[in-house]
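Notes from hallway chat w/ T.B., transcribed later so I don't forget. T.B. wanted the structure written out for a chain they're using in a teaching module, and asked if we could keep both sequence and structure tokens in one place. Agreed to drop them here.
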Amino acid sequence: MSPRKPNMESSVYLGSDGWWHGRVTMGVKADGSTDRRHRRARTETEVRRKVRALEKLRDDGRAPKAGRVPTVEQWMTTYLTTIASLKLRPRSLDDYWSKTRNDIVPGVGKHRLDKLAPEHLETMYAAMLADGHAPSHVLKVHRILSRALKIAHRRRIIAENVATLVDPPTQEETEANPFTQEEAKAFLEAAAKRPTFMRWVVGVGMGFRQGETLGLRWPYVDLDNELIHPQWQLQRLNWRHGCKDPHACGARLHRFEPCAEDCTRHKSYTRGCPKPCPKLCTRHASTCPERKGGGLAFTRPKTKKSTNPVPIPPPFIPHLHEHKAQQEAARAAAGELWQEHRAVFTRPDGRPLDPRADWEEFKELLAEAGIDDRRLYDGSRHTAGTILNELGVDMPTIMEILRHTQISQTRRYVKGRSHLSKDAMRRMGNTFMPRPGVTSETRTETKDTRAARARRRRRIR
């Protein structure tokens, strides 16, 4: 009879099936029973190697929990539903879900978390780049997946976060293309012909983001003290199903086959034909009778710094008073059709401006003003920061106006102008080099001799 092995000591033996087996005691399960793990291999050397690796994880306190390890798809669903939803803003959560459905699940969704290898992620990233995705998009997918794996590692579901072993693509920073002062004036002259004139004055002249501008509400606009408190922003959120069976709810809209090459149904879509639905599709929540949480919504800004008050330029005050009076007249004309949201910039019926229509109007104003195409951010936030710098405002003050948390972020919003560089170098040259036509006179002093002094006295006489 063999002596009983001490507690926590592993056992290795050759089974009747011809395999070598190893049993490792890891501790106690959640229900109080002993957590004893099994490893097997064809040779004794191999099974002992596996047993030592498991013992090291146990001794270091890094052993994964007992039970079946979920797949990447299962864990991402759990992470976004019960963990990330408690911290992320609604718009960010929608973006996480979108990249999970469209990129992570098709790429590595079937792998078990503990079997996921760096090569799997590298293959997925290379395929995304080959499909035409921007490096910034791939980098965002990497960060989402890395964060989810980090939480899984903390909870000892996996022994290591393999995303930390992968070098994602480098994001190339998009170069800003702000308006010049002449272009900004031309843009506002074109906007002056429209009822949304003050929306563009605030966006270009004060550097507000699109969501902050469209989300401005009158209780937070202090015209007496000339301050705007950006406490809200307007965002379009994705609808969510409120029914019990999302797949059956959207059955009539499911499309499991890709469109033909000569598809005319989606010819007006800027991004081309939509992708086919997955087998257990739960999309199409916008048609759900019990839909919830979507559409245009007022949300809080992402950071506390974004809610800091911004001074209103005094010349803007009379125009804002006039805009408010015009809105009161529109409210009286609409009568019962008016929908009260207390928004500063509204449609004729009182609803906030649609961000999509706002973007389209920006493109129309560019064409009317004769300005080449550029991003909405370039024509508002980047323009405000750059022109403030040209007017001699120091960088910390620009940071306060744009409400950035770090001055390095502000520097990315301010673009240097060539004429300012030329003027600076002209002044530098004048500092070091003499002006043309100006000569310097030098004298060499020598000691006079007695004969020289006598000759000078004779000349004077």
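Follow-up for T.B.: The chain has a mean pLDDT of 87. Might be a good example for the class.
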